[in-house]
Amino acid sequence: MSVTTSAYIGDYFPYGKVTSEEAKLAVAKAKPEAFWLDDAIRPEAMPALAQDIYADLVIIGGGFTGMWTALLAQEEKPERKIVLLEGEQIGDGAAGRNGGFISASITHGFVNGFKRWPEELPKLVRMGHENLAEIEDFINRNQIDCDFQWYGEMNVAITEDHALELLEMASTAPEFGENFKYLSQQELSKIIKSPLYKGALFDEDVAIVDPARLVWGLRRVALERGIAIYENTWVDDIDYTITGVKIKTSLGSVKAPKVIVATGAEKSLIKEVNKYVVPVYDYALMTEPLTEEQWEEIGWTEPIGFSDVFNQFHYFRPTIEGRILWGGYDAVYHYGAEVNPDYDFSDESFAMLGEHFYRTFPSLRGIGFTHKWGGAIDTCSRFAPFWGTAFSGRVAYVAGFTGLGVGSSRFAAKTMLDLLYDRKSERTKLKMVKTKPFRFPPEPFRFIAINLTRWSLDRADKTGKRNLWLKLIDKLGFGFDS
């Protein structure tokens, strides 16, 4: 199955750096805050840890991975004393800043799984579908109000060659347990109207959700079950002791025999992890609510999520209030793998996104944007999560979700617990779990390589041709994405 673009689109490339004054003005008026976090029901933070305590299990990081790990560990042994430490408030990181797509894929999409683990892909597909069903069941059983909607995702083609690749994927996928539906340009136009789209691949096993309300819901359930959560508690260091591990914070500490590290794009406390992960900044806009007439103009008849198939791709979806979230394209890396709140906002990236939105939906040109935000994604060279242990098996970690962790984080949590407690399972036997991605080179070569890759991917989108650099990293199985 072909997985690379070969079409020459030249002057027809619909995106780029050119931005109209209209787009600049529209995004300038938007509130610099993640839409999902600008919510009246946002819970107040739990107190910070300010004493020395003991636990059976400590979890560092309160995003989706950390919350799922805490809940699954508690379900295994309700008597287990579990402590979760979050450096900010729950939801402030990637959990409250993403697009809210919950995919069944645990391999960052079918194509990535096909390229990297073809022999075990049927098993990975099955596990991913089971994982998503269990997420929905947990949400329903615990009455988490997070606007969970099972409407699927359309992967749209902007060139004829893209459309042919999607058609080929639809015919290949059933061999591995997936059931995608291909839509021609005419069929797609009955679902969404844009002058850019030539066809699409529909994946019905994707849900869309309010991600902040989901992670807050997980937090509520965790607290109800007696899991101790300390927010605004930054971990300074991990010390190995004779009896276990000691987690040091600015005002206290926790001693425990077992520790989970789930800190996402932040610099990991496990030094080895930082060789495999780089923080890449992704940006998003939220429109003002559309009128009924505006929805009719673009023909978006069902609340389906969308993404395009360029290397530098966009993702977009409706909200329950009738808005459109529009994000992606840029994948910005800062020298030294720096994570800084100042990088959450980029006037250039926001204006470019606004212009891309207008080009995609010309009839909506001039619509306003109410929110603009960004955030760091933990990107690794294989795009999918990887696992490991440290401190003689007393610490387990996972990282590298590369922007598709809302659903796969729960699978990752189950796998981490297996590794931490030395349990042999179907998950731990996977090649995906046993192996790690390629390491990123040290600076300054890391910065040079990443930006050369970004430039090359942009050129590939515009010309349909992968240059020698991309061909080399394709051959090595190395990648860069958001």
Flag low-confidence runs.
2-11
Gap between N and C termini: 23 Å
Tell me the helix content: 25-40%
Molecular shape? globular
Largest sheet: 9 strands, mixed
- Give the averaged pLDDT, no decimals: 93
- Structural class per helix/strand content? alpha/beta
The helix tally amounts to: 13
Radius of gyration: 22 Å
What fraction of the residues are assigned to beta strands by DSSP? 15-25%
Counting copies of identical and different chains, the oligomeric state is single chain
Number of strands: 21
Q: What would you say this structure looks like, in words?
A:
The protein has 482 residues and is of the alpha/beta class. The protein has helices at 21-28, 64-76, 110-116, 121-141, 160-172, 185-188, 211-224, 292-298, 347-360, 408-420, 431-434, 445-463, 468-476, and strands at 52-54, 57-60, 82-85, 101-103, 153-157, 181-184, 199-203, 206-208, 228-230, 235-240, 245-249, 253-256, 258-261, 278-287, 305-308, 314-318, 324-328, 332-333, 369-379, 386-390, 395-399. Strands 5, 6, 7, 14, 15, 16, 17, 18 and 19 form a 9-stranded mixed β-sheet that branches. β15 (305-308) and β16 (314-318) form a beta hairpin. The longest helix is centred in the N-terminal third of the chain and has 21 residues, at 121-141. The radius of gyration is 22 Å and the shape is globular.
